[in-house]
Design a protein that fits this description.
There is one protein chain. With about 140 residues, this protein is of the alpha+beta class. Helix content is about 35%, strand content about 30%. It contains four helices and seven strands. The strands form two sheets. Strands 6-5-4-3-7 form a five-stranded antiparallel beta sheet, with no helix packed on it. A two-stranded antiparallel sheet has the order 1-2. A hairpin with a 5-residue loop joins strand 5 (about 80-90) and strand 6 (about 95-100). The two termini are about 25 Å apart.
């Protein structure tokens, strides 16, 4: 049996190396978060790369159910920081808690013209694929 996508590797060692040494442009795509039901129905898109001023709800972990706005996207560590999700250090200083984007759901998108183009492009591709499925 031949591999379907030759640019991806099935070896655990090589897959991990590719993941942890990925450039920032690839990390952006890996750091995608799912949209909530209303946004998914509206834009016809399941997930989108997360960005700074998106509003999210945490779905997993100790902070499950908490809502907030993305304050920073830390691509080097594959985490996002959310306003209000902090912990106190022993010296009293507050530190943001990192949450992986796959463990949050986007409830409100910060739309600009570039992001709207991305949504349109993905939705258009989905529609074309659905049309092809109906023809055969």
């Amino acid at each position: 049996m031949t591999k379907i996508n030759t640019s991806l590797h099935s070896s655990r060692r090589k897959s991990r190396k590719a993941h942890f040494s990925a450039p920032s442009s690839v990390r952006r795509v890996i750091m995608s978060a799912p949209l909530n039901k209303e946004l998914r129905d509206k834009h016809k898109v399941r997930s989108i790369p997360i960005r700074k001023d998106d509003e999210v709800t945490i779905m997993r972990g100790a902070y499950k159910g908490r809502e907030g706005t993305i304050s920073s996207v830390y691509r080097l560590k594959y985490v996002v920081h959310i306003k209000g999700i902090v912990r106190e250090k022993t010296n009293g200083q507050s530190v943001p808690i990192g949450v992986h984007p796959s463990k949050v759901v986007i409830t409100k998108l910060k739309l600009d013209k570039d992001r709207e183009k991305i949504l349109e492009r993905v939705a258009k591709g989905r529609e074309e694929k659905a049309q092809r499925g109906k023809e055969s």
